[in-house]
Amino acid sequence: MRIIMLIDMDYFFAACEELRHQELKGKPLVVGADPKEGRGRGVVMTCNYEARKYGIRSGMPISIAYGLKKDAEFLPADFDYYERESREVMRTIKGYATRFEQVSIDEAFIDVTEKVLDYQDSLQYAKKIKDAVQRDHGLPCSIGISGNKVLAKMACEAAKPNGIKLVKPDEALSFLAPLPIDRLYGVGSKTREKLASRGYRTIGDLANANPMNLIDMFGVFGTELYNNARGMDDDEIVENYEIKSIGREKTFEHDTFNRDVVVDAIKSIGAEIEEELKRQALSFKTVTLKIRYHNFEEHLKSRSIGHYSNDVEEIVSNAVRLYDMHAEKGEQIRKIGVRVSGLIGYKGQMRMSDFVKA
Ligand code: DCP
Ligand code: CA
Ligand code: CA
């Protein structure tokens, strides 16, 4: 039994702005494009909870946000500053974890199984982490606790803002069932529409579905949906550092959700990795796919292939499989990365130089 937490910062970019503009605290604050008195183009990146009371939301056209609350404070994004704050907060969080995986600028999964006695005790531990983040960095966060990543993520959504929520594994089905389907991890608007057209509206509908129907609709991703809806997920926490690995990334000229474009990128990255493996006389055992979405969310998924290989076909087929299983359908992708790890020299020895941080 694992005890996993997802820690997600509350209204992150806007909270960072409140931190350095204390006078704005308590007032509606929007970070994003310049509203230009309603004529501005571009979108809201985020806003504080005061602004959310007026209906303003991430991703909304800035002109609409302006229409909802003209005298809100509108600030441009300062990514360098948010990334600095993020690095410091993540360092604090990491200190509480046995395993740590940062998944976006403002959230991380941690495994605390060995740090706490049981679920009851994990609540105290989460409070300690939350207080440390607030005290040392002046920023609020929310924490979800459960037995796997999907449930921890969804518990965290329920904890927001500024809260802690524990979902014990035996409470998973009843916690998930009444929630609308697009609250499920991995379900974007396209998937929601497709499911709604077949009458699936709540996560409970999905949990009670015949999994074969979902596989017919979505292929392997259907299995993932079905399992997630039942609170089942055995996805590992992938440490952000690991033994030396070889990876390449490609940023698309235009954000894309076209599978052919992604597969082409994976093929060209695979060829580069194969070349590097041959140059260094290495074989790999694990393939990791990294997907960065248009909104900065980044997902890492890994697959161990069960043997050592230096073959481009195996890099590509495994990376594409990870894409098909895990990519959020209908979400625009900005960048794709493939990495191979679990490296071994051709002569069958691990080389000491492989044990450095990637
Ligand atoms: N972000 C963005 N565009 C989006 C969504 C998010 O630029 N469409 C940026 C701004 C957010 C940050 O990413 O501050 C983190 O995104 P979250 O989804 O975690 O949202 P917030 O932290 O802003 O709010 P919440 O309190 O709901 O977590
Ligand atoms: Ca957040
Ligand atoms: Ca987040």
Q: Estimate what percentage of residues fall within beta strands.
A: 15-25%
Structural class: alpha+beta
In helices, the fraction of residues equals 25-40%
* Count of helical stretches: 13
End-to-end CA span = 29 Å
What best-fitting shape do the alpha-carbon axes yield? globular
Low-pLDDT parts are 347-358
**What is the chain-wise order of helices and strands?**
EHEEHHEHEEHEHEHHHHHEHEEHEE
Number of distinct beta strands? 13
Mean pLDDT: 92
Going across the major beta sheet, what is the strand order? 5-6-1-7-8
Radius of gyration: 21 Å
| Sheet with the most strands, sense and barrel status | 5 strands, mixed
Mind sketching the topology for me?
Layout: E1 4-9, H1 12-20, E2 29-32, E3 44-47, H2 49-52, H3 62-68, E4 73-75, H4 79-94, E5 99-104, E6 107-111, H5 119-137, E7 141-146, H6 149-159, E8 164-166, H7 172-176, H8 189-197, H9 203-207, H10 211-218, H11 220-229, E9 246-256, H12 259-280, E10 282-293, E11 298-309, H13 312-326, E12 333-341, E13 344-345
Bound molecules: 2'-deoxycytidine-5'-triphosphate and calcium ion (CA) (2 copies).
One calcium ion binds at residues 8, 104, 106-107.
Please explain how this structure is put together.
By secondary structure, the protein is an alpha+beta fold. The strands form 3 sheets. Strands 5-6-1-7-8 form a 5-stranded mixed sheet. Strands 9, 10, 11, 12 and 13 form a 5-stranded antiparallel sheet that branches. Helix 6 links the parallel strand 7 and strand 8. Helix 10 packs across helix 11 and helix 12 packs antiparallel against helix 13. The protein is globular and about 60 Å long. Bound molecules: 2'-deoxycytidine-5'-triphosphate (DCP) and calcium ion (2 copies). The site of 2'-deoxycytidine-5'-triphosphate has 16 residues, from strand 1, helix 1 and strand 3.
